[in-house]
C-alpha cells in the first residue's frame, strides 16, 4: 500500500468553489473526491455514495457536518463517514487542511 500524502487541491477556497457554492468534485490521482465547505470548515469524502453511487456533490449538508445523498437520502457524517441514518454503509472520508499556501487533502 502506498504511503499517505497531502495533495494540494487549490490555493484558496475561492479557487475551489464557485461563488455561492459549497461543494465541488476534484480528482486526485484518479480518485474522485467531493470537497464540502460548511461554515468555514472543509471536509473531503468519496464523490460517490457507497450505497448505489449517487453523486454526493449534489447532496445537501447540515450544520452538524452530515451530507445527504440525493438518490435515496442516506445520511453520512463528513467527520467519520458514519452512516448516521442507520443503513449500515460507510463513506470514505479524508482529512483536509488549509494554510497560507493552500488547501490539502491527505489521501
Ligand atoms: S445511492 Fe446514495 S443513498 Fe442510495
Task: Kindly describe this structure.
The chain has 107 residues and is mainly beta. The chain has one domain (6-106): Rieske Iron-sulfur Protein (3-layer Sandwich), CATH 2.102.10. Helix content is 4%, strand content 41%. The chain has one helix and ten strands; from the N terminus they run E-H-E-E-E-E-E-E-E-E-E. The chain has one helix at 13-16, and strands at 6-10, 23-28, 31-38, 41-46, 60-61, 66-68, 75-77, 93-94, 96-99, 102-106. The strands form three sheets. A four-stranded antiparallel sheet has the order 2-3-4-8, with no helix packed on it. A three-stranded antiparallel sheet has the order 1-10-9. Strand 9 and strand 10 form a beta hairpin. The longest helix has 4 residues, at 13-16. The chain is globular. 24% of the residues are buried. It binds FE2/S2 (inorganic) cluster. Residues 49, 51-54, 69, 71-72, 74 line the site of FE2/S2 (inorganic) cluster.
Brief summary:
This protein has 107 residues and is mainly beta. Helix content is 4%, strand content 41%.
List the helices and strands and how they pair.
Layout: E1 6-10, H1 13-16, E2 23-28, E3 31-38, E4 41-46, E5 60-61, E6 66-68, E7 75-77, E8 93-94, E9 96-99, E10 102-106
Antiparallel strand pairs: 1-10, 2-3, 3-4, 4-8, 5-6, 6-7, 9-10
The structure holds FE2/S2 (inorganic) cluster.
Count of helical stretches: 1
Overall mean confidence score, pLDDT: 96
SS-derived structural category: mainly beta
- Biggest beta sheet summary: 4 strands, antiparallel
Number of domains: 1
Low-confidence stretches: none
Q: Determine the fraction of residues in helical runs and give it as a percent range.
A: under 10%
How far do the termini sit from each other? 12 Å
Gyration radius, rounded:
13 Å
Q: What order do the SSEs take from the amino end to the carboxyl end, as H and E?
A: EHEEEEEEEEE
Shape estimate? globular
What are the distinct ligands in this entry?
A: FE2/S2 (inorganic) cluster
The strand line-up of the biggest sheet is: 2-3-4-8
Question: Which percent range describes the beta-strand content?
Answer: 35-45%
Q: CATH fold name, please?
A: Rieske Iron-sulfur Protein
The CATH superfamily turns out to be: Rieske [2Fe-2S] iron-sulphur domain
Name the CATH architecture: 3-layer Sandwich
Number of strands: 10
CATH class: Mainly Beta
